[in-house]
Amino acid sequence: MPGDLSWPSTDIWDRLNDTLDGRLIKTVPIASVCHHPNYDEVKCKHLRENWRRSDLHMDHPTSIMHNIYLKKACDPFTSPDTPCDIGSYVQYTVNVSKPDHVKKAVNFAKEHNLRFVIKNTGHDYMGKSTGIGALSVWMHHLQDMEYIEKYDSPHYSGPSFKLGAGITGAQISRKAKEYGLVVVSGSCSTVGIVGGYIQGGGHSTLSSVYGLAADQALSFEVIAPTGEFLIASPTENSDLYWALSGGGGGTYGIVWSVTVKAFPDTKVTTASISFGIDSAPNEEAFYEGIKAYYASSSRFGTAKLSGFAVHSGERFDLMPLFAYNQSSDDVEEIISPLIDTLGSLGITYTKAVATYPNFVDAFFSTPSLQPEVQEVSAFLLGSRILPASLFPSEISQDQIENEGLDKLMLILKDIANKKGVILDILVKADSTAYANPSEWNAVHPAWRNGLHSLAVAMFFENEEGLEVISRDQDLITYDFVDQLRQLTPGSGAYLNEAAPNEPDFQQTFYGTNYNKLLRIKDKYDPYQMLYGSTSVGGDRWFENESDGRRLCQVTKNSKSKKRSFISSIEL
């Protein structure tokens, strides 16, 4: 840690920089212009006004988008007289351009007993992209995209793309369009496809047709924490390939590239539906309208539709559904029972159905999905994968008789009454992506039976204090999500969009795969260089608050306590 006698001297850091072709960057927090002695009123004002722009943090070597994990260190919204402490920012980062940079960085961290972190875009809800006292590798400028017309292997034959670690979903979607193809990529277009997204499973608007992002991985190039450059595929280092395909990012190695499947582009139809509580006859009818959406979801999943729904105690927005290779008439027929039900409830709604010639045009027809305008939302999360068995097969069935759906609606109403917002992802991950998906990759088995990845969010202002933020996160984790856990025993959650203080993260994020993943981690990361509080093996470590938040190994004498949100951001 900085301040220790064993912390590398400036001369040692300089010598490291020489071996890295001058690519070592000493952290200067992005908001240093808002604090003395570097205070600049004009620059600070610009930073505050643009603080929620994704590209602001994506293009900075050490800033992260979900900046609660910086724990208000050098915050642009505090007084200029407040010291600009580095806090949970990494101390140094390497702007890597070749594998040797990663090897030298990880070897240096190992030699000097430094914490080691991987950052790509910084789009990370779980705090893995930063760490107190750490040396980081910044992967964002690895921008290679190679089209492979015919990838040929025993497990797949067809078009593919080899992607450098810095490629985002928006970039590969637009590149694939040039070849008349699509690639499974994230709903947030600023997500780096090669990092935590594909390694964590990764849902997509194409998942109901082609499966999860992890189902697309054909091979990885990866630098193990031992310094070895490895290929991981179904036939080479197959255990590492299995773990990287859904077992969590930043855990088993530093991924340099991934080769993924590509599929023919076709027309895509979208459908949006919105209504508010003020456009319903009463509150009961409003919630019956929301219930009708969930009662329709099995029908949507069977028809291979995916989409997003956002709702609170005031309004519902389906924004939108995506129907791959289906016409407007097809989609109108699919959604007609929902529309009929809304009408019978006396709800005034808006509806828009449109067909686009290709996937990119359809996806970016929703303004909030465009990377140029996509913002970092200041919210707290918890989530649960809801199994398909919870929902009726058709909305025409008597909803009152569906006990699971009734229980879900009581939970959703309780969440809304406590100012929570639901961010629902409708995704039926197509298990035909492999003959036996659970054997080929490490995604949580709950995905294969799931229909919704339902997230619960609470929003906060930039100026909000950590005490209020912590209180709200604990409300999400130990109240909202706990109700969903009781409703869905044996299920899990998407490990990239979940509560950072999830009490049983081993089961919730990894399920029956956890012990196998732990053995693979120990094989490829024997020195335990790669850490995340909810990563495989993360329960072996804790932040020692009495020793400068140093990362220490858990022993039999370590105190066990409830995972509060404040402790989970002690990074």
UniProtKB/TrEMBL annotation:
FAD-binding PCMH-type domain location is: 86-265
MF terms from GO for this chain are: FAD binding; oxidoreductase activity
InterPro entries in UniProt = BBE, FAD-bd_PCMH, FAD-bd_PCMH-like_sf, FAD-bd_PCMH_sub2, FAD-linked_Oxidoreductases_BP, Oxid_FAD_bind_N
**Which UniProt keywords are present, listed alphabetically?**
Oxidoreductase
- Matching PROSITE patterns: FAD_PCMH
**Looking at the keywords, is Phosphoprotein present?**
no
Q: Which PANTHER family match?
A: FAD BINDING DOMAIN PROTEIN (AFU_ORTHOLOGUE AFUA_6G12070)-RELATED, GULONOLACTONE OXIDASE
UniProt record similarity statement: Belongs to the oxygen-dependent FAD-linked oxidoreductase family.
UniProt-recorded name of the protein: FAD-binding domain-containing protein
Question: What species is this protein from?
Answer: Dendrothele bispora (strain CBS 962.96)
Which lineage is the organism of this entry classified under, starting from the top rank?
Eukaryota, Fungi, Dikarya, Basidiomycota, Agaricomycotina
